[in-house]
Amino acid sequence: MQEVEQIKPYGPDHRDKTEQVREMFDSIAPAYDFMNRAMTLGIDKLWRRKAVGLLRSATHDDILDIATGTGDLAIAMARRLDPLTVTGVDLSAEMIEIGRRKVKEKGLSEIVTLGLGDCLMLPFPDESFDAVTCAYGVRNFADIPAGYAEMHRVMRPGGTVMILELSTPRSPLVKPLYDLYTRTLIPMAGRLVSKDTRAYSYLPESIAAVPQGQAMCRLMEQAGFTGARAIPLTFGTCTIYTATKPH
Question: Which of 32, 154, 159, 167 is 20 to 30 A from 226 in CA distance terms?
Fold first, then answer.
């Protein structure tokens, strides 16, 4: 199977994955929140709530949210964890603009700051954050090990990394329905709503190829994290990964 870093939204051309991912999210930004709710039947809100809850017992004064998109996870953490700061970065200027409007509307501008940033070259000094999070973004990294290495670099000792990522169910009862839904219905709906003919075909391709379960945990531990664990949700269609940076 092709490695997820080699799967690009718009196929094999001269642009690297980072450039293509930026273009894709700029293109689908206006429809992104609607499609998230529609694709998951609103269950994505429950997944985020579970993920945020796992950070409650960890130190979380200063949080970095990578691939923050339109800021849903950053906003949820600011509301539920009472941190000092939540900083969100994303490749897409269009997604960040929508996220900033949402942060302002919810009165969280003093806590949440959103800006442009590449997960492979984070614009922060070493040991700047207590927790680093990423929702639905790791499979879009051009280099997953390098992305985890950057998370480790900017995290303070004793800090927590929390990854929320879509995954493929293993149940022989669930998987055929899942495949039909992700490979046929979602691309069809995505083309109608977002007008991007490739973005929602790339989605199931990248989910199928991204490291999952213990394979993802090994990547986190190879970057220097310890105690990595995988928590499957909703028949395995989503997984939360957590690990810590040793003192």
Answer: 167
Q: What's the rounded Cα separation, in Å, for the pair 96 and 91?
A: 8
CA distance 4 to 64: 24
Using CA atoms in the order 239, 122, 113, 156, what is the torsion angle rounded to 10 degrees?
70
Over the stretch 192-241, which tens digit does the pLDDT of each residue have?
A: 777 777 888 898 899 999 999 999 999 999 999 999 999 999 999 999 99
Say if CB 222 and CB 149 are below 8 A apart. Answer: no
Q: pTM above the 0.90 mark? A: yes
Cβ–Cβ under 8 Å, residues 135 and 48 = yes
Query: Given strand 62-66, what is the order of strands in its sheet?
Result: 112-116, 85-90, 62-66, 129-135, 155-166, 238-244, 226-233
Structure tokens at 200: 């929602």
Helix (H, G, I), strand (E, B) or coil at 18: helix
Please check whether residue 144 is in contact with residue 218, taking contact to mean a CB–CB distance below 8 angstroms: no
Pairwise CA distance, residues 113 & 85, whole Å: 8
Model confidence at 46: pLDDT above 60:
yes
For the chain, the first-to-last Cα distance in angstroms comes to 37
Where do we find the tokens 């669930």? 174
Per DSSP, which regions of 119-237 are E strands? Answer: 129-135, 155-166, 226-233
| Distance set, CA 231 to CA 42, 136, 236 (Å) | 19, 15, 9
Q: Looking at residues 42-69, what average pLDDT do you find?
A: 96
| C-alpha–C-alpha distance, residues 135 and 20, integer Å | 19
